[in-house]
Amino acid sequence: MDILLVEDDKAIVATLGALLREEGYEVTCAATQDGALAALEATRFDLALLDVGLPQGNGFAVCAAARAAAPEMPVIFLTASDDEYSTVAGLDMGAVDYIAKPFRPRELLSRIRAALRAKAGAGALALGDVTVDPATGTVRKAGAELFLSALEYRLLLFFAQRKGRLVTREMLRDAIWDTAGEYVADNSLNVYIKRLREKVEDDPADPRLIVTARGLGYRVEG
Description:
It is a single chain. The longest helix is centred in the middle third of the chain and has 16 residues, at 105-120. The strands form three sheets. Strands 2-1-3-4-5 form a five-stranded parallel sheet, with helices on both faces. Strands 6-7-8-9 form a four-stranded antiparallel sheet, covered by helices on one side. Strands 10-12-11 form a three-stranded antiparallel sheet. The protein contains eight helices and twelve strands. Helix 1 links the parallel strand 1 (2-6) and strand 2 (26-30). The protein folds into two domains: 2-120, Rossmann fold (3-Layer(aba) Sandwich); 125-220, Winged helix-like DNA-binding domain superfamily/Winged helix DNA-binding domain (Arc Repressor Mutant, subunit A, Orthogonal Bundle), CATH 1.10.10.10. It is of the alpha/beta class. Helix 6 (150-160) crosses helix 8 (186-200). The radius of gyration is 18 Å and the shape is elongated. The mean pLDDT is 85.
């Protein structure tokens, strides 16, 4: 598997590059937009890790070029933990995920493996009349596009990938920990689920897709 790492922080490049190579990935590094575009022209990558802020150009332009060169290639953004704009903009451009800096290396590896598995499998994931396309970061209900926050998208994708299975509240907390920026309390998680249901359920008061399993968590139907 070939990974393109676009990052100008030499410490991150050294640490992350070594970690990825230890896991068996081939890694090509670029510190600028032009360097990344040249790499995309020369090599067909399986996945791209993109920093938003670059000394020359930016990660958004690289993402657009990557999507044009290989629409099926997963793109993961590396963003500052408080940079909500970059997070949302990256997902809107088709990134499948994002990691807030400073990130936990093993979590990043898990996200990379999940993105590659999604690429290898079927494209869009379906929950009833709601579809989630990890390749483009888009969500549709009955054909009409839904506009979710970054956190709502992460939750919905997590549910869609576990259709027919029990999803515990602990699993959800782990999935959205970085997005929320702090420990996710029960009340906060209830609010996040309520907001998501208001967008994807026909009747949020009587949910049919994300069903509460009392005392356990949620069962994903549809």
